[in-house]
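Incident log, entry 3
Record: Phosphoglycerate mutase (211 residues)
Problem: checksum mismatch between cached and fresh output.
Input:
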Amino acid sequence: MSETTVVHLMRHGEVHNPAGVLYGRLPGYRLSEAGEGMARTAAAWFADRDVTHLVASPLERAQQTARPIADTLGLEIATDERLIEAGNSFEGKTFGVGDGAMRHPGNWWRLRNPWTPSWGEPYREIAARMLGAIDTARDAARGHAAVCVSHQLPVWTVRLHLEGRRYLHDPRRRECGLASVTSLTYDGDRLVRLEYAEPAGATDPDAVPGA
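Fresh output:
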């Protein structure tokens, strides 16, 4: 007989980032006060969802987001490097769609190939490592549910892969808000349903950028 297992991919909460830089994998970026509230709200949302396994990216903001879930459910937080934020050569800089960065000659070489992308970790590699982390979490929670706390681009990239969509996309159109949950339901090892929820509410369009 097959088993139903759910793997919840959660994006971390809002980060304190007053300079508005792309912080990526840089150390020292913690949740803001609002982000801590998002994590607590999400923890309550998971309370009755039969979660037996909790794992997070090694970055501080993901570990912080996982902490209220661990406390609420009485679980330990495992760490999986495969859930980490995507590598990006623009880390530490202000860079975003519409801010003029794409017109700066110094950035043109890094922006030469949006399909890979040339400015950071290839989408295919992001998807592959996320799939590995998902498989491990699914195996650890067989017949129950797992929560994997990660970051926006890794969660969105693996969703594009699972839905058979191309990786190239407009970052402004990602359905992956702060503290959002993308839930993957498996019948045995077969994905049968993908759902999206925002336990902490929709992300403000003016939210602090970063990752």
